[in-house]
Amino acid sequence: MDIIVVDDVSVRTVVLTLRHRTLPLTFTLFPMMHVGEPAFYDAVAEQLRTHDLIVAEGVGSSVPTDLLTLTYRFAGDNPRLGLVVQPGRMIDVGVPLVRPDMTGPEFEKRWRTIRRWERAMVWALAPVVGLHMRLFASRKYLASMAELDDDVIMLRDEPDLELRRVIGDERDALLTQALAEIVDTRGHEPIKVAVVYGAEHVHPVVTFLSARYRYVPRAAEWLTIFHI
To answer: Once rounded to an integer, what is the mean pLDDT over residues 101-118?
Structure first.
């Protein structure tokens, strides 16, 4: 399953609609890159207005989250790129919002349990990579790291890093629990639910909704994140 694709001219993300054979509730998945052209985020916001509920990521503010988001925040500050960091107003479209993510204190508490060498690695590398993004990154360089499909996800999951489990698996569990509650309580309603999460969270969502509730992808649309 292609999630983010890269060609010679652009980086694009799929907007995936999942439907059930009998339940009227539908899901629309919006795999996000957190840096892109303003037009991309405007296009997502426009589609979100047509939904009845938005489920969006957003770990609460803390020192560790500020550190982990340094790379893309610095890329958004690079004037040569002409890109912006995903704006908070994108999901502020007058539609009810659910945020099943960790709060700042929850993430900070979990961060302190991660092995010291992993935390030290992040403290050492994040400012360096962020500075490189701020001073030297190009759109072509960002595109080279953006492509995401099932094979790429499998490769990224190989390292046995506790940090990966915290920012990936544990947050995926919170998200899928929230989606389960929505299906269990509102599955009989003809509503459209938008799921707006980072692209690497999309595969676990599709797998979960398919295995537990037999939701399947029925439609796909491509949006351009940025041109190269």
So the answer is: 91
CA 53 to chain centroid, in Å, comes to 17
Domain count, the chain: 1
- Report whether 64 contacts 107 (CB < 8 A): yes
The two three-digit tokens of residue 129, written as one number: 């990579």
Phi and psi at residue 129, to the nearest 5°:
-65, -40
State in Å, rounded, how far the first CA of the chain is from the last one: 23
Give CA 197 to chain center in angstroms. Answer: 3
Beta partners for residue 193, in sequence order: 27, 53
SS (H, E, C) the chain: CCCEEECCCEEEEEEEEEECCCCCCEEEEEEECCEECHHHHHHHHHHHCCCCEEEECCCCCCHHHHHHCHHHHHHHCCCCCCCEECCHHHHCCCCCEECCCCCHHHHHHHHCCCCHHHHHHHHHHHHHHHHHHHHCCCHHHHHHCCCECHHHHHHHCCCCCHHHHHHHHHHHHHHHHHHHHHHHHHCCCCCEEEEEEEHHHHHHHHHHHHHHHCCEEEEEEEEEEEEC
- Residues 6+ away with beta carbon under 8 Å from 117: none
Burial class (CB in 10 A: 0-12, 13-18, 19+), 41: buried
Q: Which domain holds residue 81?
A: 4-227
User: What are 168-186's pLDDT values in tens digits?
Assistant: 889 999 999 999 999 999 9
pTM over 0.85: yes
